[in-house]
Predict the structure.
Amino acid sequence: MLRDLRFAIRMLLKRPGFAWIVVFTLALGIGATSAVFSLIQGVLLTPPPYRNPEQLVLISSARAEPDPTLRPADWAAAQWLEWGEEATSFEAVAGYRWTFNFWVSDDGSESLEGMWVSNDYFQVTGLEPEIGRTFQDLDTVEGAAPVIILGYDLWQRRFAGDPDVLGQPLPMSRRETPPTIIGVMPPAVRFLPSRSGAQEPNYDVDAQVDFWIPVIPNPELLQAPIWNVVGRLPAGVTLESAQAELEVLTARQAQADPEFEGVVPRVQSLMVEANRDGQRILWPLFGAAALVLLIACGNAAALLLVRGLQRQQEYGVRSAMGAGRGALFRQVTVESLLLALVGGAFGVGLAVGIVQLLKLIGGHAIPRLDAVTIGWPVLACGLGSAVVAALGAGLVPALRASQLDPVHALKETGPRSSAGRGERRLLSGVTMMQTALTLSLLVGATLLIRTMYNLSQVQPGYDTGRILTMSVTAVQGDWSDFHLRALERVARLPDVRHAAFAWGVPLTGNNWPGAVELEGQPVADRRNDRLRLPLRSVTPGYFELLGLEVLNGRDFHAGDTDDAPAVAIINEALAERYFHDTNPLGKRLWRRGREQPANQIVGVVANARTDDLTQAAEPEIYFSLWQAGAFSKHLVIRTEGDPRATVGAVQRELRAVDPTVAVENVKTLDQIRGDSLASRSFAMQLLIGFALVASVLTLGGIYGVLSLSVVSRRREIAIRTALGAERRTLLRLVFGEGARLIAGGTIVGLAAAVALSRVLESFLFEIEPTDPVTLIGSGLLFAGVALLACWLPARRAAKVDPMVALRAE
């Protein structure tokens, strides 16, 4: 083997151009595959730091009879506490809620995201503190001193990893007594999904948890449906059996308390749920990268086949001197493996750069992207891809070399030997496979390009241009006074046209799905049957700022304060659905039951796609911010020029009102729109890149096959020319062979594209995976470009001098 390796190195050094082309070709495929696998390993395959995370399940709620207007609330503590005592399918269950607070600082406060958790939460998840302890029963009794556990990232960020942090108070807003730090959790602990928390401005399920606070049971709130639930299954217990047992328990609870009727549990694997978004985008992209690797292997195999044809005389001599079939097979295989390993080394280096690029452009598209590291996953995938490439590219050339007839090779092969009919067919088959795979990638890229174009044409109902947003929170002092003074100062800035505060800026996911009752609609008997609609609160001028037209009635005005009658504005979709035959102005709605004061509807605003550009407008309700309130909210500003140029001035004005104000998440509305489409944009960019690389490799393969065909048929072409064949006849001969090659690959590729494009269905908007215009257009475009690759070989055939060619024979 060592002798074969030395011989392979000498032979490759004699033909460095050939070697570098093969290495570069394989490096492209290996680099793309390794880079995407690195993302998969970091995002999907790295387990969270829980004990046996595959045994953890999330218990969500769903309506027994699906109704799009009625969203079930979360679980009541009375329910999951009973599950923990009676359910035999669970080792334990725990309740949790997302929350947030602020680290108060005189030079600008910082938001902190955390969790309220029940006492057995850490027992269920199996989290062990890095230092200190978890919560004990004494921490959750009425009147106990407040305690808190820090997340690792906050510990490093604010305390520089000081082990003496235990026992220190943590300065937080909205707390008369700062909680005492009793522990620090290990790194990389992220949030569990929280349906209610997902509506908050600061919520990020993929962020690392900053703190945990224990829940002190309140008997008055045991029936409140405000909790998310996580459970641990014993080894051997299935999701189906746990689901069946919980269905029995919740049905019994609903019989005992009508408030729990109409809601059923859904037991879901934590790992599956946490990876759902990542799987949706990464596995299709890994498939696309694998196709690029296959195409690269096909190109390398074709080059090695041609190289083998040029060395048939050498193989014949070696065989005649006693080299067996195994020795020839081993020699060619070692050369292929050497090329693949060098290509793998370059591919790993290329993958490192690609990963950095993907982390740069995929920040809002891929969850937990910060967990992706460049280490052994890239190396392991690069090595594995190199071995696959060596087998894929070198197996056929090695088999053909080992099966060579030495007598025939020495008799027929000379310095001008070329491919026979069998070799040309094999190379044509490889090229057709490359064409088919490339066309599949082109169709996928084209579908996403058309999707992004369709989305760019969507009229959301508001103007996103020249609008600056930032989350602004007054962490101390008089809430109303701060916001009034802040609006006055910001509105006076020279480049600011309009300014408003809003809880529920479009495309941020911010709204609270509140239970409401509408005048004229049936009164719900149970809490879970109440109508739940997206609620938002804004200051006067917000609709004008966004360009949302008030169709009927009036906008909010400065007089809509706490002392004035409560008012509300609804959108056109709500008016049409619930007041389609009456004028909604003057109608009432209730947020906390009919025993509480009602809000009077004073206006109807135009529809807007505020949650998702791909979804039509749904019913929404707006309240006056001065009446409804909101602790954290966005400051929204429309400017005369570039909104980013006003950021510094706006922040100075806010801190002039209150130096401790928290100003975060500074973005233009155009950026927010882009973030909402990030997964589609990211997939499109990668598929375009993969498709371009695959196209270059495939066009090179087509050129190589036809060039070899021209060389192999040199004598035939010379005879045709000598017998009077015209130039156009020779061109037609070569173009005809190329057209048959391209047509076969295109037909197979379109069939493959129909199947593979369905993987992208969740990314598409207003276009079908089997869209005929895309399929036919992509096929014709690629076929047209591929025919250009036939031009040089065809010209070479037309320039064959019959006298020179026949004399050489």
In short: Confidence is low (pLDDT under 50) at residues 413-418. The chain has 25 helices and 21 strands. The first strand starts at residue 56 and ends at 63. The longest helix spans residues 325-361.
